[in-house]
Amino acid sequence: MSALRESLGFLTSRLRQVGIFVALILIVILFQVLTDGILLQPQNVTNLVVQNSYILILAIGMVMVIIAGHIDLSVGSIAGFIGAVAGVMIVHWGWAWWIAIPACLLVGALVGAWQGYWIAYVGIPAFIVTLAGMLIFRGLTLITLKNQQITPFPNELRALGGGFLPDISGGTSVLEWLTVILGVGGTAAILFQAIKERRVRRKFNLENEPRAWFAVKNGFIAVLMLIITFLLASYRGTPIVLIVLAVLVIVYSALMNNSIFGRHTYAIGGNLHAAELSGIKTKKVTFRLFVNMGVLAALAGLVFTARLNSAQPAGGTGFELDSIAAAFIGGAAVQGGIGTVAGAMIGGLIMGVLNNGMSILGLGTDYQQLIKGLVLLLAVAFDIFNKNRTGSGGGSSIGRRFKWKTTPPATETSTPAKAEPVVVDAK
Amino acid sequence: MNVPILQMRGITKTFPGVKALQDVTLDVNRGEVHAICGENGAGKSTLMKVLSGVYAHNTFDGDILFENEPCEFSSITDSEKRGIVIIHQELALSPYLSIAENIYLGNELANKGWVDWRKTNLEAAKLLARVGLSENPVTPIQHISVGKQQLVEIAKALSKEVKLLILDEPTAALNDEDSDHLLDLILHLKGQGVTSIIISHKLNEIRKVADAVTIIRDGKSIETLRLDQGQITQERIIRGMVGRDLESLYPDRTPNIGEEVLRIEDWTVQHPQDHSRTVVNNASLNVRKGEVVGLAGLMGAGRTELAMSVFGRTYGRAVSGKVYKYGKEIDTSTVSDAIDHGIAYATEDRKHYGLNLIEDIKRNISMAALNKLAKRGWVDGNKETTVANHYRKSMNIKAPSVAAITGKLSGGNQQKVVLSKWLFSDPDVLILDEPTRGIDVGAKFEIYTIIAELAAAGKAVIVISSELPELLGICDRIYTLSAGHITGEVPIAEATQESLMHFMTQEKE
Asked: Which of A274, A333, A408 is the closest to B356 by Cβ?
């Protein structure tokens, strides 16, 4: 009983993280029912992954930019531009894919450096610089393509968008064994990591999640992973882009949590002045964030182009909005300082499932946009509501009822925050 | 003469846990200039906020009689209707609007909702003439100097048919010439029957304009001195301002002072926006190993500005002067340079400049020295937690764990996190700006103990504080600053609150 209560208290204190996860599951179940089971058919799950991969790649960079307190409106245009550049390099100039891909990423880095320079060193708000970038790089896309699509691309590049890992059983088995091995291995690795982290936290006297919640959460994640593995394995196996995405998520999660660069990003977004006064080179960090965003936008552009097998003048249009929405639905704070790569991925999946499910249902883009807009608004509204609830301000009666559970007991009652006005006199 | 215009009786204002004002009495006569004096944090501004309705009448105890009628103000609008206008230290003007628009902002001369521009500019010009400002009323505010902006504020007050004008440190942001002009104007308005209350601790100003001085100390009105009774003298005012008992306890320490660690020479800093103002003027000071050096000064003396300009030029422009460490000149022109040279600066405003409030304790502690925890750019999280746990224990940071969010801690514990952050950067010199501001008495003693331990461990410590007893309690030597100049250097044995206040209010020509 007490374990249950402890878990409940924990859940209310982590309402946001838990909520987003539950929301994803509910949306999946909803569309599974509405589409008569089409949503979770193996082929559709594969589609879902591939269709959303470029948005998810963009969302990784976007959430980092948002954590630092900026925004990037230009990523869609950059993705389109890089697609055009790739078309010129590969189709017109005949470059090999293994030269063209790094070259495209380099162009992405240069584009990011261009924008980062104006934002970090000149001090123009990112909103303006990237709004300009949105126009500039769309214009460059059109110029590069001379308003015509470039197609076709060689198979090696197309594999990046629509390819699968080879079937090691040679097509004899119902399940793709390589996918099963990767899926089961990945699940084991995640569980192992979670248990290790829990041990470390206990060792250093940090609060841990209640045992029951820990078990439920990780059990659930494991089951989910295995279901997806099974679904993918019973269609055509693991999409190559999923491997790319998995590597990116792991690397960038580690980067944001454990690297000096990632920590400085959070510090800048959390309190710019304090970061500056702690000796953090805030301009350099900001510059690098946008270079990184440029590289990821280039990668997303390559994946998208590879999937369509053509570089198109309008390629990438609207990607910036989907990736920004993914980051915010995934819990990033508008003011900066808060957000995670994993959250952005879940946010991106919510958008993806909505897109996919509504398409299967035959809803037009009109209703799709309406519903996606409402979901974004509700997610951020929920954030604000949640912040007011746990913050020092009034909040709802439900919030107050749970407060004793969710906030640690005050350790020093003699110094209320409201004592400040006295100090005001001094400055 | 001597007809009372304002009587405040038994004013008591409490903030949760703190009595900001306690049984304060203030009597102001019609047509006089009444100065209010007191140390930083004594309660002067709070009293004026009570008077002007910033704090509504039901949030404090006591009575206010204005022109013999009781006042119950709920907002500034109410007090302005009665002719009481307050001009805050931070001017409330909109930089892109014209002088005339600013004067009538919120009080527009309009006809059925449409602004009458001819009348607005005409009336504004008349008001400008009254305050002796020869500017075109359509000039945008940002194109005139701060001194002239102050005059616009007064013109704005006059437009509201002011009877009692309250000026909160009106000359704090002005250069000498503008200050003189402003004081003349106050006397001129007095001739026209406007009563003024002026908050100031510049004693020469007070001597120039004030007919009476009320002294506030620790939220209590101490006494009212009157010019016609010959009571307004510098000694008398100083005695009133500082006559506080050394009530807090300070840890015992035997200083063990070694060689000079840091020396600052001929340090001069200009105000970042107002180029006519020199905020720190030719200041020189030093601090030695194991020594705690105090920097005393009133509001606007330039203490924080001095410290921040040394610490990576984080304040001011056209900074000049030299910094020496162990006798060798060092470059501290960026924060990371300063940290690399072993200098740490713990800000007076920890919420805005010191902490990432949405982040946890351990990540705040590691923020200024992450590279000490990292290999090739990757942070060792376990080591970080170990370090944070170490400081939680040694600093006695009261929190469930080092994963607790700093924004939820009390002021004292937040301050300990800030100190931990800087200690972890392993500095030789610590500059602590108001280290006990907003902290309760018990936590203050802990902070003093930490400072004493730092000195005992051979660190050189500079403490900036507005509380003279605190400086007297923990320092070995105290510098006083006044209007950007170092006006005194007093060994602790010779220092008293009176002697320090004397230097702090001294004006260097």
From this structure: A274
Q: Which of A277, A284, A403 to mutate to test the interface with B (most CBs of B within 10 A)?
A: A277
Q: How many CB pairs under 8 A join A and B?
A: 167
Judge if ipTM > 0.85. Answer: no
At CA A416, angle to CA A415 and CA A421, rounded to 5?
105
Full strand arrangement of the beta sheet holding B260-270: B278-288, B260-270, B317-325, B328-330
**A205 and B401: CB-CB below 8 Å?**
yes
Are B359 and A266 within 8 A, CB to CB? yes
Helix, strand, coil shares of chain B, percent, nearest 5, are 35, 30, 35
State CA A231 to chain mean position distance. Answer: 23
Sort A421 into a burial class: Cβ within 10 Å, 0-12 / 13-18 / 19+.
Answer: middle
Residue A118 to chain B, least CA–CA distance (Å): 21
- Could you give the CA distance from residue B341 to residue A398 in angstroms, rounded to a whole number? 52
Report how far apart the first and last C-alpha atoms of chain B are (Å, whole number): 36
Q: What confidence tens digit (pLDDT) does each residue in B237-249 have?
A: 887 877 655 455 7
State pLDDT tens for residues B40-72: 777 888 899 899 888 888 888 899 999 988 988
Residue of B359, B420, B436 to mutate, testing the A interface (most A Cβ within 10 Å of its Cβ):
B359
Which of A345-359, B194-208, B350-364 has the lowest average pLDDT?
Answer: B194-208
Report the alpha-carbon distance of residue B313 to residue B121 in Å, rounded: 43
Is residue B506 within a helix (H) or strand (E), and if so which, with residue range?
Answer: none
β-strand pairing of B328-330 with B317-325: antiparallel
Neighbours of B277 (CB within 10 A): 18
Cβ contacts of A400 within 8 Å, gap of 6 or more: none
Q: How far is B440 from chain A (nearest CA, A)?
A: 6
Q: What share of chain A is helix, strand, coil (3-state, %, to 5)?
A: 75, 0, 25
What the block records as the tokens of A278 is: 């702690």
Q: Across the interface, which of B299, B345, B398 has its CB nearest the CB of A277?
A: B345
| CA-to-CA separations, B184 to A261, B20, B201, in angstroms, rounded | 56, 33, 18
CA-nearest residue of chain A to B413?
A412
State the Cα–Cα distance between residues B328 and B172, nearest whole angstrom. Answer: 36
d(CA A40, CA A32): 7
Q: Do A258 and B378 touch (CB under 8 A)?
A: yes
Nearest by CB: B41 against A263, A266, A426: A426
To 10 degrees, what angle do helices A365-390 and A341-361 make? 150
- The tens place of each residue's pLDDT in chain A, 427 residues long, gives 566 666 666 666 677 777 788 888 899 999 999 999 899 898 899 889 899 999 999 999 999 999 999 999 999 999 999 999 999 999 999 999 999 999 999 999 999 999 999 999 999 999 999 999 999 999 999 999 998 999 899 998 999 988 888 877 766 777 788 889 999 999 999 999 999 988 888 888 787 778 888 888 889 889 988 998 999 988 888 899 999 999 999 999 999 999 999 999 999 999 999 999 999 999 999 999 999 999 999 999 999 999 999 999 999 999 999 999 999 999 898 889 999 999 999 999 999 999 999 999 998 888 888 998 999 898 888 878 877 665 433 333 333 333 333 333 333 333 333 333 333 333 3
**Distance between B121 CA and the closest CA of chain A, angstroms:** 35
Q: Is A204's CB within 8 Å of B439's CB?
A: no
Distance from C-alpha of A144 to C-alpha of A340, rounded to nearest angstrom? 35
Tally the C-alpha atoms within 13 A of residue A414's C-alpha that lie toward its C-beta: 8
Q: Which residues of chain B are within 8 Å of residue A422 when distances are taken between CB atoms?
A: 15, 18, 20, 41, 43, 46
Distance from the Cα of B392 to chain A's closest Cα (Å) equals 12
